[in-house]
Amino acid sequence: MTTCLLCEQPDETGSYLCPGCTKATVVRLECLPALYEGLAPHLAPAGGVGTGRSGKGGPAPLPVNEHVLDLRAPGGMVGIVEDWESAVHVDRRMRQTVPAGSIEARLKSAVAGLLANMPWIAVSWPQAGAFAEEIRDLARSVSSIVSPPAERQRVRHGGHCPAKFDGVVCGAALFLGQGEQVITCRWCGSVYPPYVWAQLKAWIDEDTKARDAA
């Protein structure tokens, strides 16, 4: 028995990531392209953009939100994901991927590369914990911009979060707020874009059956 490097709970599979943290990391990776796209409307600074010079004679504010711009820039989300993909390729002695296309295309490519290697990452990679933690933090950070808690309205109940942490299912209620495109668990930070909702329902149904049988 080993200890999961993300949730730090005993794991009977002997892997670096337990099955629950592996599944949660896969979902977060799958969500990154949708979260990247969701940042676009937030490029404009909150409260509008000034023109010319400020009233105190200082420089005019930038016409974009710098933090969002950084996340969408080459060294932002895509840089983090590509760096991890490169690290996997180095340790597996695989040919390095040459980034090509738009930043969005590069992000999708790097995500696909990591997803393809997730079985090896979870079972055999000593850096699995640091990798899963950074992907979790990245997804949470971007989600907090795309769908900030203060602006959420409970509109549609989406069941209960199936992500596993500390050896148990999160179980927090999931809600899709008005105008939101991504379901985000407000307890554990797991994110579920539309293209995983069918799988999300399957996970929820599976966990519901397990609870009823217990």
What does this structure look like?
Strands 1-2 form a two-stranded antiparallel sheet. 47% of the residues lie in helices and 10% in strands. The protein has one domain. The model is unreliable at 46-62 and 151-155 (pLDDT under 50). It has helices at residues 19-39, 66-72, 77-91, 103-116, 118-124, 128-146, 197-213, and strands spanning 2-3, 10-11, 156-160, 164-165, 168-169, 173-176, 183-184, 191-192. With 214 residues, the chain is mostly helical.
Helix percent band: 40-55%
Average pLDDT figure: 80
The computed structural class is: mainly alpha
Cα distance spanning the termini: 24 Å
Strand order of the largest sheet: 1-2
Shape: globular
Q: How many strands?
A: 8
- The SSE string, one letter per element, is EEHHHHHHEEEEEEH
Q: How big is the Rg?
A: 19 Å
- Continuous helix count: 7
Q: Note the main sheet.
A: 2 strands, antiparallel
Q: Ranges with pLDDT <50 over ≥5 residues?
A: 46-62, 151-155
Number of domains: 1
What kind of oligomer do you see? single chain
In percent terms, what proportion of residues is strand? 5-15%
